[in-house]
Fold each of these.
Amino acid sequence: MAMLERTDWAELRERRMGEPGAWEAYQAARLAFELGRAVRELRQRRAWSQAELARTAGMTQSAVARFEAGGTVPTLPVLGRLAEALDADLDVRVTPRSAA
């Protein structure tokens, strides 16, 4: 039986990122994580539980928990309800990365 060749994390990541759709999935996961973190920070500044935010935003506590953990990318209406519940502005922008 031949010995299996070990792959380090960098090699594995590079190979996976080369697969179709991998980069897009990575970017979606990053966005979900960043949005969840921002909402969690605002909720914690208010000293609210997830249940309190959920009740105020018309959601379930489990939906808030999944969102804060980066497990889902919410729709714009859901982001709007979360922002309203947190007395925050929702600012969605598309900006150029460099001067054209």
Note: The mean pLDDT is 89.
Amino acid sequence: MDGDTHERGSKLPNGAREAEILALLQRAEGALTPGEVTERLDGELTYSSVVTILTRMHSKQLLTRTRRGRAYAYAPSTDEAGFAARRMRTVLEERSDRQAVLARFADGLSDSDAELLRQLLGPDSEAGR
């Protein structure tokens, strides 16, 4: 075992488990408690493993949580587009030459994506300020 999960089923890396739980929460109608997540995983993880993963994801600001009775209910902190943008920002922030990274990114855009980016960065947009 890897120390912080006690899988009943097949072993998955922590990142894959987090992605699985995030996808489950994104499909849910609202916030879910650890018990509800455990039920929807059909016994793949123990309750304590689910609590550990949800707590870790909350500390990474991937999830929000609100008190529901004696437990917390968890929900994604943003939508899929927001998570993709966050990953892009993280990669950009890890590089020392931001201009080179952005230039390479822009060079790789299709004409339609480049035009969309120009529109989004226009003078009247929030991003253009």
Note: The helical segments are 14-27, 34-40, 47-59, 80-93, 98-107, 111-120.
